[in-house]
Amino acid sequence: MSRKLFTVGPVNVEPEVLQAMTRPMITHRSKEYKKLHGDIMEKIRKALDTDMEILLVGGSASIFLEGAVRNGVKERSLGLTNGSFGDRFIEIAKLNGKTVDEVRVPWGKAVRPGDIEGKVSEGTEAVHWVSNESSTGVFGDSTALAEEVRRQNPDSLVFVDAVTSAFAMDLEMKRLCPDALVFGTQKALALPPGLAFMAVSDRLFERSASVRNRGFYTDLAKLRKNSAENYALTTPPVSLMYALDFQMDRILSEGMAARYRRHREMGDAVRSWAAKHCGIFPEEGYRSNTIGVINRGDMDFDRFHSALKAKGYEISNGYGDVKQTTFRIGHMGDITLARLKELLSVMDETLEEIQ
Ligand SMILES: Cc1ncc(COP(=O)(O)O)c(C=O)c1O
Residue 352 has what pLDDT? Predict the structure, then answer.
């Protein structure tokens, strides 16, 4: 039986998108590659409404979370966290030898500008956080946070993990003005995993020139030199880039406003389903339109999920500290409201059957 994925990632990939990967191979130093690379970057910039330079490497998004701190921080950063992936960003900075000050807010809550008041000091070289916390389903106001960071220290860089928000929820790039914005292919781009991206500001490029130990794979100077010619530094997954180019055309023809609206409608549908059961975990006003984190109550989730899987539907377990008390529905990428409603009604039917 074919699986219908409503997971948090990798997510469902449409057959025609997978098919686009089967074009004949080209080398990554050819003219054809150069055109492919350039076309993709132009389309991504258009979709995200930004003029920023965008870099890609073969790997998962975490490689560029690491790249951001390795290039932008000599000694000290501030990490904001309200869940597992905020913690992960902090861990990545620490493992790269940086000293990280932390602002922690309870899981399920958004980090607000007031939470960081007085925390961005002169020595804070960068502040990093997650735009859409995948463990809790909280979509924070990154623009307001970035403005507060810059108000306290205009030299402090802003690094945003947009892994589960980019291309599904409007990041207002021109107001957010991130110095690094990181995402990958396997979430709202609805492609197989394998490519990581970082939108990079001129400020971060400048900062990196004076930072030591930037490594090789994530060295912004090397990456930029190649990217200026529409090439990658190391061998990229070319087949995946064929699919990405094809997918970007689909995304742009849907239109970003329509895409954001579709995700909002799906978020609303999941929230009303949750309201009829044990409720949604994240606080009101900051609920994600890509991931619904739903309270389990006294539901036997393993039994429920096995029954759903037997019918061909797969959702996601809870994550981190709320692993045992929540479960998650991923509704990003190419999922439609109609398909999501089908899942929700199968979930209702399945809950009745197992009671
Ligand atoms: C918010 C967030 N950040 C980072 C990651 C890590 O991404 P990757 O596995 O592509 O490195 C994930 C993965 O689920 C995520 O949801």
Answer: 95
